[in-house]
User: Fold these one by one.
Assistant:
Number 1:
Amino acid sequence: MRRLLSYTQQALAAPPRNPRMAVVIGRLLAIAFLLCFGTGLYSHFLQEPEPWMRFSTVPAQLYQVTQGIHITAGIACFPLILGKLYTIYPQLFQTPPVKSPLHLLERASIALFVGASLVQITIGLLNTYQWYPWKFGFREVHWALSFVVIGSLAIHIAVKLPMIARFWSRNSEGSRELRGETAVDETPDAAAPVAESAPVGGVTGRIFRWIDGAPEPEPAVSRRGFMTAVGVSTATVVALTAGQSFAALSPFNIFAPRVKGTGPNALPVNRTAKAAQVLDTAVSPDWALTISNGRRTVTLTRAELLALPQTTVELPISCVEGWSQMATWKGVRLRELLNKVGADTSQGLKLTSLEKKGGYRVTQMGPEYAFDSSTLVALEVNGDTLDIDHGYPARMIAPGRPGVLQTKWLSKLEVEA
Ligand SMILES: Nc1nc2c(c(=O)[nH]1)N[C@H]1C(S)=C(S)[C@@H](COP(=O)(O)O)O[C@H]1N2
Ligand SMILES: [Mo]
């Protein structure tokens, strides 16, 4: 068994499979994971704030940027993780499989980390395509897994710290040894532990000399070639999808699910009026917006809303799924409506949509958004009446909020006590 494992491990040896490469890719992955985690926390708390939380309404594009980073960094994880697994997977066959309880913990944390990360980025990617081929709630699972991923990443980094230090830079001791710049062979005892703890062929030169006297074969994958492959694939998937979030890359948006400028009012639609089952109620002549604060209530028809002072703002729709687009909105300032029912600037708001059912039929808005001068009950977009798919007769649009909270087909606004 042992011999089979060690034979497999050696057979898989290749120049990119060395600890320096694992550290180089590992660093990039760690950056991508931390970006995803940080921006993910922000996105989560915007949608499920703790009562004491207040958020910034400036710049209006803040969420567009954080969520664009979230999705783009998540997509970059695919080639990076595959590259990393390529460099380290011969480690699967290390002998003996378990050396000590600590070693077992190390291997278990890596298994957990790899498994959780792969599930995490895969369900995240499918979510951006609005494809939910599973029964569980995406948000809950993505949220819970993020702690598993970050927790096991922390353990992984802690355990590997000595190795990370040895191979941190080009001129670290380990990296120089790899290039054969230190006299490894003259100090076999000192070098031995490295070979043991490092991925296969921890020290180049030994990799191909495992059969005594055999000439060194030409490696099928060179280190440089491998780095280039990982680099180019990462840059390519990022460049071909980031256009959904970042306007400058929009012309190269080939794989991402949303394309800027398409759809009614030249704006993509996320949930159609048909899907929300509002095709009849949204165009009903009986529609009116109710605004209430305790017992004080005001009801305004669309014509009455249009007769109030109109404000124009440039604000983006920034979907949690990563696509975003700037649009020109026209309508009534929310705070003017709130003033009509005597709300004060410490009070938040409950918004109800005409939508029959759905996770975003009822949403909450903190006072920092409700009283911001650019938050509108929008009646027009991009110079035209709101299309029914964009929330006709009226929708909410506020700066810096995730798309899910830009409620379409408004019905009721209730000031919270
Ligand atoms: N009532 C209601 N409003 C909603 C949604 C919804 O499902 N129901 N979806 C939201 C989501 S996820 C986004 S990204 C934006 C998209 O706005 P658009 O379809 O007008 O581009 O609307 C938001 N408003
Ligand atoms: Mo969205």
Number 2:
Amino acid sequence: MAKLWSVLVVELFLHIDTMSGYYYERRSQCLYSSRDLNDMVLIDSYIFNKIEYLQFNSTVGKFVGYNEHGIYYAEKYSNDTALIQGLLAGVDGVCKQSADFCYSHIMDKTVEPRVKVMSVKQASGNHPAMLMCSAYNFYPKAIKVSWSRDGEPVTSDITSTEELADGDWYHQIHSHLEYTPKSGEKISCVVEHASFQKPMVYDWDPSLPESERNKVVIGASGLVLGIVLSAAGFIYYKRKSSRP
Ligand SMILES: *[C@@H]1O[C@H](CO)[C@@H](O)[C@H](O)[C@H]1NC(C)=O
Ligand SMILES: *[C@@H]1O[C@H](CO)[C@@H](O)[C@H](O)[C@H]1NC(C)=O
């Protein structure tokens, strides 16, 4: 299986001469494929007009040239013990230290998702009902959102978005479940994420959500107020009209 390399660009020197159109670049990359950073390689590339003519590879331990100019400098630089030692020391001193810093300050950090389960569509006639489970503002991106029905995992009628980037390091994801309601059943959304010790279970509460309850309360109050006022008005009218 091909290794998946992570690249950390630690230094980029770019010189573009707009008058002549020349383009010079030196790029130092730290490549590694495992979290323990044991296979860290430092690659130092020298590039002229987008062609890499000279490269230092810390595994090889010397410079290699790819054209006449490159070969000349490869010999010259490879002879420079202090330069080679310095570059080899960079594998630990620069590459591993920078990667450790990135992991401890960014990549190993986790932020718990805020999870909401809501109804998108009520069942009507032959059409099934639909629930949506949304997870917001989590980091890192990797997450698993699944459904269970009376404790059993649901395997069909689920559609999910990708993890959507919010553009501020956080992500969101939305999973939809189509189902035919049965009375007394319990439907839950199960979220697995690096910020949780164990999968978190969010039960679907089929009672009216708060905003709907508020609408009902406001509507009922309005109705009561209307009845009271019209009764008061009617009594007032009756009294007035019964006076001689
Ligand atoms: C660095 O050198 C090693 C050993 O020759 C090689 O396996 C590896 O592919 C080289 N890396 C790059 C990026 O050229
Ligand atoms: C590299 O070093 C060897 C031995 O010290 C010397 O003979 C050779 O000329 C050097 N090459 C360059 C390109 O400086």
